[in-house]
Fold:
Amino acid sequence: MRQIQLIRSSTFLWALAMAAGFALFVVGLFAFIYWELDDYLIARSDRMITTQIHFIAELSPAHRISAIADHLDQDSRGVQYAGLFDAAGTRLAGNIDRVPRELGLDGAVRGVRLDLIKQPAVHDPVVRVVGKRLDGGEVLVVGRNVDETREISSVVGQALALGLLPAFSLCLLAGAWLSLRAQRRVEEVNQRVQRIVAGELRERLPQDGTDDPFARLAGIVNGMLDEMETMINALAGVGNDIAHDLRTPLTRVRLALERGRSHAGTLEELQETIDKAIAGIDQSLAIVTALLRLTEIENNRRMAGFGEVALDEILREVCDVYEPIAEDKRVGLSVVIARDVQVWGDRDLLFEAVANLVDNAVKFTPSGGRVELALEADDDTALVCVSDTGPGISEQEREAVLRRFYRSDKMRHTPGVGLGLSLVAAIVKLHGFRLIVGPAPGGRIEILAWTGRAGKVATRRSRTLLHADADQMG
Amino acid sequence: MNRILLIEDDAETAEAIVAELADRGFEVHWSADGVDGLDRARASSPDAMIVDRMLPGMDGLTVIEALRNDQVRTPVLVLSALGAVDDRVRGLRMGGDDYLTKPFAIIELVARIEALLRRPIDSRETILHVGPLELDLIERTARRGERRLELLPREFRLLEYMMRRNDQVLTRAMLLEEVWNYKFVPATTNLIDVHMGRLRHKVDGTGEVPLIHNVRGSGFVLRSRQ
Structure:
């Protein structure tokens, strides 16, 4: 199974292809060297026999015969041929039996068959021959066996073939090794990923210091895993917060029920106990509802409910709703509208956001204080500002208040589920607007909205704007 | 006696609803799945229906759609564990008349069923009368007997809503949705109480018989008869 995998692996197949390519290249190289060498050696023997025939022809007729004999004597390997014939073609000297018919006597070298006095045992040699008619009418023929060029070529070919085999094996080995190595790394990555899937979020992919693509890929994936670990931990943190916030009312419910069961003697006492329990459960349910709402807004990428929204109307309505509550608390609530403004958004959500801000402001402003709702606008932005004379949000708390469930120690005992500002932040994000938390003392929270055409564009791009805005908000 | 058909697959929830509604004098029939529920609705033509959204056999919304296609106008209260605004809108668009998200207070359910059964007649009257109260919708004036009530616009709206549904329990959630057009639960839980306090202060003067009453644990009622 593993072998099949190895053979199938693309690395190995590439190595195989490379080996085949290399073999083809070597064969081609061999052919080229063979032809070149052959040409070279033949040209060389041609030059040699041409030189020899001129040398012998220059001699006086008396010396020619002995020169031919000397020439042939010196040739221990028997590759030199020479012959001197008279005008009638009768051999006078040398080892060539007769003048070859195909041979022209013009001094040009040709490859022809030679009839020798002593025929070699093996085969007819391929020879290069040159002939010349001398002044006295005799014919001089000089030749040379070029079989040796074939021999040299075959030696070279053998050498190359011998080299080819190890090279081919080396390619295969390298391919197998690389393929195995890649498979091992993939296997290791797989094991680590399995561990991550199993919940071990701190696990990372192996990332040796090298700069190979594998290490770089691992680096990229590790970066992503870092990001995800942070996010998952943040989510887990939210989970803990939820659990904690749910535990408080549920503990109260439990205590009330327990006490009611053992102490309630009359129907009224029992009803009182049950009312307490229901109130506690309602509080828990309110937390769950608020959370679901938050998730709904955060996940809602559709802008189905979007349309032109008059911000001034929203502000007036919110003021109208909260006026009696502020009055009961002896907090002055006023609305100042510089100009009527329309923005592109979801009316209900924007109403919810502004209502939440005012709700908070009224809640945290002490008696005798003031809450002001203001709407300012210029050509392409609108600013909804909710300011109050309460304690405000300190520098350290600014980021935290936008987190789910954050409630500062001062607010611990104020009713509310602590999701108000998170909801506002989520709604503002959905619209691509910006939420600005002003410095303490005195509460001041602003929503910066884009109006008109720019507003629509900003809305469509809101997903990308969010992150930048979230950074700026901190 | 009003006959109500409840289509709900959770036996325990159904039991609690049936018991509560029976206590209040309704005749309740229970069906545990959509197909059976639709058959019963066609056969018995109840006065109102309570339909759970997620049902075995046939989805709650499909049941309602089928009935509406048959021109059955029976008022329907949709129950659902899906609380998102979109789900609610879809539930109402498919022919539901009201939508209640689980978990709910049983008193809320009863109040809404009663509201559905007594849908205000879309009267062309421009002057509403409840006991000694008189509301002129054109002149935008309110009187209690001879006394003229100086109401702010939001108080006028609230009183109009209550007068159209006199002797009927109105929960805080119903008032938030219908009078203030709230699509969410405000963080300040006594929002409605404060507004109601203002209105009551103007409607029920010292020495007069109170007309607006608190209903313990559920909401408010405007009583025409004492």
Summary: Chain B has a mean pLDDT of 88.
